[in-house]
Amino acid sequence: MRPRIFISHSTNGIDEHRQVLLDLVEYLKDDFIVFADIDQERGLKVGDPWRKKLLHELWRTQGGIVLLSEKATKSPWVYQEASLLRLHNFQHSTVEKD
Predict the structure, then answer these.
(1) 40 vs 30, more confident
(2) Which residue from 28, 64, 72, 87 has the fewest beta carbons nearer than 10 Å?
(3) What is the spatial order of strands in the sheet that 4-8 belongs to?
(4) Tell me: the pLDDT tens digits for 57-86?
(5) Are the C-beta atoms of 7 and 36 separated by less than 8 Å?
(6) Residues whose CB falls within 8 Å of the CB of residue 61, separated by 6 or more in sequence, listed in order
(7) Highest mean pLDDT pick, 33-42, 64-73, 82-91
(8) Beta partners for 33?
(9) pLDDT, tens digit, for every residue of 4-32?
């Protein structure tokens, strides 16, 4: 079974990094089950209880990626998501894809 990866980012200024985020999801999706809130396949949908869904995805992930930007460093949600990922004792590592 493929491991789950949670991608945290700031939605404030999303237009500045939307394509980077979508490219990252596309790049990883063959080897990982990727959760990014804007991903059309697995992300948030209109009407979803978003807090509950984010916490659910954070709880069951095996790894995480935090996309940092100036706006992300000021986001309480990105901080909380990064903190929850750290609570899972994830190690800083580099993922290499063949």
Answers:
(1) 30
(2) 87
(3) 33-35, 4-8, 63-66
(4) 888 888 899 988 888 889 998 998 888 888
(5) yes
(6) 4, 5, 6, 35, 85, 88
(7) 64-73
(8) 4
(9) 999 988 888 777 778 888 899 999 999 99
The DSSP-derived string for the chain is -PPEEEEE--STTHHHHHHHHHHHHHHHTTTSEEE-TT-TTTS--TT--HHHHHHHHHHH-SEEEE---TTGGG-HHHHHHHHHHHHTTPPP------
Among 8, 4, 68, smallest CA distance to 34 is for 4
Angstrom CA distances, 74 to 4, 13, 21, 52, 68, stand at 26, 12, 19, 22, 10
Closest listed residue to residue 28, CA positions, set 44, 6, 8: 6
